[in-house]
Specification:
mainly alpha, disordered C terminus, Na+/H+ antiporter like fold, 20 helices
Amino acid sequence: MNTILLYIIELARGQADIPDILGWADLERIISYITENTATLQEGISALASQNEPVAEAHVVLLAAGVVIFLGVMGEAFFKRTGIPDVAFLMILGVVIGPVLGIVQHEMVVEVVPYFAALALIIIMFDGGLNLNIKDIIKTAHFSFSLAIFGFILSVTIIALAAHYILGWALLDSILLGSIVGGSSSAIVFGLVRSVKISSETKSMLSFESALTDILATIAAFILFEAVMAGHFDLQTVEETLGRAIAVGLILGFGVGIPWMYVSTKLANAQHGYMLTLGILFVLFFLANSFGESGALTALVFGLMLGNKSRFAGILKFKMPKIEPDDPTHNQLTFLVRSFFFVFVGLLASFGQIEYIIFGVVITIIVYIGRLGIGSAVLTKRFSKLDRAVTNSMIPRGLAAAVLATYPITLGLPNAEAYPQIIFFIILSSVVITTIGLGRSKNIPPPEFKEGGFVQPPDGTSEQADGTSEQAEPADNSKDKNSEG
């Protein structure tokens, strides 16, 4: 690279006939110095990483962890200033400390996938439930279901047909690949919608949609794992598995969430109240898995119960203290898990056949084009231009896809090594597209209420379908204060 840069400088100087007084010789020496020291730094890091071991020494791993936390904080601040998500930067950092420098080897990452994935799944889904407004979900549920179902089916169809006819995979294997990356990632969407200036209803719609597609992807993938191993597809198994997962998630989420809201009234001043809630969440995850549900829906419903406690308290006729959705401990834990998760996705990167890289990038662009069509068909005129732009851009793949991509290797399925390679570049490409889309939508001004969209009018009243107005409901926080016992 040093030779190339020097050649370019010499060529530029010769073509332009620029005298040496402008410092070309100094520039050449600077480039040589930077190149030599960069090579030395790379050699030093490679030596520290201990390529013969699955994980580098403790102090090197802690250095990498410190860099992750630092970039996570800086990336969050960068996102708030520019509207550009930090997700892609963290994923690239994972690629650097994993496949490039070898601080953490790919084999070690695959071994810890089930443990880290389980923790990330329940924490992020629980956090998403805490920040969902049940009223907004009910108001936009039909939009969420339409976007989730049609978007999932279209994505699976596009990816499956491409894998079958372009890569030459068997049809079941192709459908499995499509199912794994068929839906947007709640781990990414929950964080993004909280920081973009769209209506609260659109935030709830996108969050609920991503939660639904995560659940759909997980259930569909596990059904297809069994189908690929058995060599045939059984529709009755699909119905039983889907029905059991939904029933278990709702029963455990509501069944434990309701009594726990009451118990929490007795633990209002407990020093470790949040940790007890976290312990209950872990137990729920174990029970959900034992009864055939991934734990995603259970964690989401449990968080939804606690996040909307004032409404449920009014229905159940008992007072309760406020359980803060923005509890500092919870915020710090969620931030830590999310930051390390995106780096973890980068660690899973595997650079193999170039056709898999091209396939992943191109197919993501096609899925994005399909998203534009679904958005145009599903979203009505009630949505503002800004809401539509953000909705159309929200196609990031993440947690569910990264975790499910490792299962074919564990199960010994055909093309097992290809899944992580293809899926990583689909994840990275989808995040880049989402980042660009959100950056462009930042230039769209928020609409006035009279222009339509789910936007509250300036005077605090909300417009009805018949053109009349009513006083807007007080925020949940004020209700919480009035219901404190």
